[in-house]
Amino acid sequence: MLNSLLSGFGITYYREHDQLIEVTARAESEERINPATLKDINIYTHDGRHVPLAQIARIHYEFEEGIVWRRNRVPVLSVRADVAGNHQAPTVTKEIEPKLEPIRKKLPPGYSIETGGTVEESAKAEASIMAVMPVMLLAVMTLLMIQLKSFRRTLLVLLSAPLGIIGVVLALLVFQLPFGFVANLGFIALGGMIMRNSVILVDQIEQDIQAGRTQWEAIIESAVRRSRPIMLTAAAAILAMIPLTFSTFWGPMAAAIMGGLFVATLLTLLFVPALYAVWFRVQKPA
Fold first, then answer.
1. Residues near 60 by Cβ (< 8 Å), separated by ≥ 6?
2. pLDDT tens digits, one per residue of 72-126
3. Most exposed: 175, 238, 240, 268, by fewest CB within 10 Å?
4. pLDDT-based confidence at 163, cuts 50/70/90?
5. Region class of 117: left (phi > 0), else alpha (psi between -120 and 50), else beta
6. What is the C-alpha to C-alpha distance for residues 285 and 203, in angstroms, rounded to an integer?
7. What is the dihedral angle through the alpha carbons of 83, 87, 93, 94, rounded to the nearest 10 degrees?
8. Distance separating alpha carbons of residues 226 and 224, to the nearest angstrom
9. DSSP string covering 175-210, please?
10. Cross-strand bridge partners of residue 51
11. Which domains does the chain have, with CATH numbers?
């Protein structure tokens, strides 16, 4: 009750667009922050009357025990800041870290300076991805082997996965977005999309060869016939990412997928058939 008298209490809410703002009733700041006025605070009794606080309590002043903030059971002092403009937290942190090194070297034993916030959380999330990455790669290679039934064709498909790096970098630079945890998720998903297109092309080439076409004809015809469905599915995925570009959290992932898939789709239609011809030493008919 006394705390509500000092800090105030809510009486209603005011709606502004989609936000609810609480309306608080409290005394003027001169009355609330002056310790000498505590004795004059009115305390209501059960019969509706009120009496000054000094009549029912003895007031004296003393120092309060300090609050010690701990992190991982270690006392810490936290320094918080926000970035201005279009700057990103990872970029600002990377610029600050070299300036902190001289300070770290002068710290006494038992003291340290650690980076927290979004940079720390992003590092933890990426570490969790890297922990399962070997299992994921093994599963992908197993599925490709089952589908393609050849080590050489499987390796050819895996080599097409990095084609999205070009588009990812361009998209993040254009939209001024960081390559953080969310963008990394988009890049991983992008690798699967690119390999799917490569599997479609390679499998079509093998089907045409089994149907009696020469290797040279099979490579050209497969690239021409599969270009339309591959480009249409890529366009559908790119258009589906547009709403996410306006999201602060999912924006980097959407930009990475859109830019990477656009460039990688064009390169896949040229790179995979050319690599197949080089890989299997296909000669142009005389």
1. none
2. 888 888 888 877 776 677 778 888 888 888 898 888 988 888 888 777 777 777 7
3. 240
4. confident
5. left
6. 22
7. -160
8. 6
9. HT----HHHHHHHHHHHHHHHHHHHHHHHHHHHHHH
10. 43
11. 2-55 (3.30.2090.10), 117-279 (1.20.1640.10)
pLDDT in tens, 174-198: 888 878 778 888 888 888 888 888 8
Locate 28 and state its tokens. Answer: 């003027």
| Chain position carrying tokens 């050849």 | 150
Residue-wise over 197-208: b if at least 16 C-beta within 10 A, else e?
bbbbbbbbbbeb
CA distance 154 to 76: 52
Rg of the Cα atoms in the chain: 32
Q: Would you tell me the crossing angle of helices 251-279 and 215-241 to the nearest 10 degrees?
A: 180
